[in-house]
Each structure stands twice: as structure tokens, then as C-alpha cells.
Amino acid sequence: MISFELGVEDLADTRFALSPLTETVLSLRVLRDPGLSAVHLPWRRSVIGRLGTLDTDLLMSLVAERFTLPDFLTPRPEVFAPGFDEELAVVRRTPPDLVRRDLAVTHAPAPLPEPLRDAAATDDAPVVRLRDAVCDLLARYWEIAVRPMWPQMRLVLEADMTYRARQLAVGGARLLFAGMHPNLRWDDGVLHVDKMISSFRVAAAGRGLLLVPSVFAHKPAPPVVPEEPPTLVYPSRGVATLWTPAPVADETALVSLLGAPRARLLGLLGEPLPTVEIARRLRVTPSAVSQHLRVLYATGLVTRARDGRQVLYRRSSLGDTLTGAGHPRAAASAARPERT
After folding, report:
1. Which SS3 state, helix, strand or coil, does residue 177 take?
2. Distances (CA, A) of 261 to 61, 257, 295
């Protein structure tokens, strides 16, 4: 069990943060063991074939047999939403002694895996080379495995934080922690994290508590060593919907909603087009197109921008969602002219 003693000031200084680096590092657990979380199997299948020449031996060695991870790879975010490069820059500045300590504690009582053996060197130079190699590898891995999905992941995480903030406002710390995970227990000013491999008790002592929701965390993950500030990475709500493919737009339903002319016009606007060109492609009059564009613009389904003497229209993100963003059926429908 790991316990955090939180005073009144610590509760007042409890805050949330996002961490793209933490998500990247935690995803290595799922990459190593697909049985750890079935909900992430679609993500794993999409990533595993794209790792190419990455040093996967070094990547996987960062995850211990007990699925613990070195604390220095997940530094405490100092702002609400740091960028990945900002966080990785913090890791690159980690002192060699801290790298040694965290890697040893993470893998104890087992010896360090072969790719991490340089961390046992008494000379600092091999440890620094290893630290920098890990950072370079994580930067490449982030680009392949996590960054493409980060915008969607962030939406899920921010929705979770909104929900948790309401829980805190309605029921205080007890309700906040009660709903996060069965392994969390709030008792008389102390937050207990059960079923942990290590055991220690830390007084926050005015440092507050940082809460970091995570897509890839399968259980609460406090720091491995007691020297780190009180931080709790916890499983986010709504993860099950993250890897579910977006439903394909139903052309019939779209036509019923907008009418056939506007549905076809919206399907055509995957690229910026002027009114005259739209009219030519649909074989209708510019005045008819203008009437439909006014309605679509007023409802937020298209955007417009002036280019010289022309006004160019294009689907908005809402319009993309409604049409299935260029699904073949929509494109085919857009290509069929209709007189209006």
C-alpha cells in the first residue's frame, strides 16, 4: 500500500494535468502484454506493424516484469497541458544518479535487462548515453504510436477531468476518490492506494496532490519511490469508446435530414470551392447554390473565406462528421448532379 497524507492546504492545492509523455510511456505496458487490457487491442494492432526499425528491445526493457516503470520517464507536469517535447526535455536533464536509482528500483529484485546494463555503470558517461538513447527512442515512438491519436485521447481525458471536478464539488475528496478506482480509499485525511508492489507513506506537506488521468493506465499509478512529489496517475473514464471506429454516415439519413440538394452539396465541399464552380459541378444555377450555402453556413456545416474576388466554401469539422468526411458513398453521391 502507498499512502498520501493530505492536509487542508494540500487538498486546496489538488489539481489536474495532462501528460502526453506519461501516456506514451504507459502505452509500453500494453505493447508488451496484449492481455493487460483488451480494450486497447485495436490500438496495439494498428501500431505493432508500424514500429519498423525502432529498438523494441530497449523500449520493452523499460517495463519491468511487474509492469512498473521508471519514475524519471514520467516527470510531474508543472502546467496543465505541457507539450510532449517540453516533458521530454525535462527527462533529458535527469541526473545520472536518478536514472540509476529509478531503473534499479523499477526492476528490483531482478537484475537490469541487457539493454539497460549501462545504468549499472559507476561512470556517468554510459548512463547519460543510455538516458539520451531512451529519450530519442521515445520521441520516435510517440510520433508513430501516440501522437496520431492524441487529439482524440485529449478529448477523453478532459471530459474525465470535468466529471471529476464535479464530483469534488458535490461530494468532496471522499466522493472524488471513491469513483476513481476500487484500489483507492480515502480515510481521515489519507489517500490509500491498495494492491501496490511497494509500500510507503508520504506526507504531502504543502506540495498538494497532482491528478493525471490516463488512457493507458489500468490501475492507479503513484510514483515508485517516496522521494517524488505526491502524484497519482489514474484510469480515465470513457476509454472503451476511444478505439471504436466512427460510424459511417448513412446517406439516406443525411438526405432525410438536409434534403438531397444540400446533402450532395455538402458532400462536394471536401475542398474549397467558389459558388460558380459548385454550380458547374452540380449542373444547377449559382443562385440555387447560394441559397443552400447560406443555410449550410448558418448551421455551421460549412466555412467560407475570401480569396480575391471569390468566396470559397468548404465543409467544417461538423460537416465532416455529418458526412463521414469523404466516405466513398458520400463522394459518389456528391458527383451525381441534380437540377434544383
Report:
1. helix
2. 58, 11, 12
Q: Left if phi > 0, otherwise alpha if psi is -120 to 50, otherwise beta: which for 189?
A: left
Q: What is the DSSP letter of 213?
A: E
Judge contact between 65 and 110, C-beta under 8 A: yes
Burial class (CB in 10 A: 0-12, 13-18, 19+), 52: exposed
What 8-state DSSP symbol labels residue 33?
Answer: -
**pLDDT (tens digit per residue) in 71-96:** 999 999 999 999 999 999 999 999 99
pLDDT grade for 243, boundaries at 50, 70 and 90 = confident
Q: Which of 4-13, 102-111, 123-132, 321-330 has the lowest mean pLDDT?
A: 321-330
Q: Which residues of 193-228 are buried (b: 16+ CB within 10 A; e: fewer)?
A: beebeeeeebebeebbbbbbbbbbbbbbbbbbbeeb
Who's near 314: CB < 8 A, 6+ residues apart?
Answer: 269, 270, 271, 272, 273, 302, 303, 304, 305
User: Is residue 234 a contact partner of residue 258, using CB atoms and an 8 Å limit?
Assistant: no
| Tens-place pLDDT, residues 109-159 | 999 999 999 999 999 999 999 999 999 999 999 999 999 999 889 989 999
In sequence order, the 6+-apart residues with CB closer than 8 A to the CB of 70 are 62, 99, 102, 103, 105, 106, 224
SS3 (DSSP) at 319: helix
Q: What are phi and psi of 231, to 5 degrees?
A: -140, 140
Distance CA 55, CA 134 (A): 10
* Helix (H) or strand (E) segment spanning residue 312: strand 310-315
Instruction: Provide the b/e sequence for 149-164 (b: ≥16 CB within 10 Å).
Output: bbeebeebbbebbeeb
pTM of the model: 0.73
